[in-house]
Amino acid sequence: xxxxxxxxxxxxxxxxxxxxxxxxxxxxxxxxxxxxxxxxxxxxxxxxxxxxxxxxxxxxxxxxxxxxxxxxxxxxxxxxxxxxxxxx
Length: 88
Prior knowledge:
The chain has helices at 5-40, 44-63, 69-87. The protein is mainly alpha-helical. The protein has a domain at 44-88. The longest helix is centred in the N-terminal third of the chain and has 36 residues, at 5-40. The model has no long low-confidence stretch (mean pLDDT 95).
């Protein structure tokens, strides 16, 4: 444990931020799984709704710095390609 007061505060702040990042990542993974399930069941309408929500969640995570913006873009692109393959 740190002895300096500012270092103790930084430890608390980092713990809080880490918890928030874990919550966002977990919710994002759940959202992606919902989309993948809809695609696997070949449910086009549900997949379109889930894709919109997933894309928004990916953008939010990227804007908060939880995901790198290129990783978010890559995930969205791959999921969109799978969705397009379902509708074709």
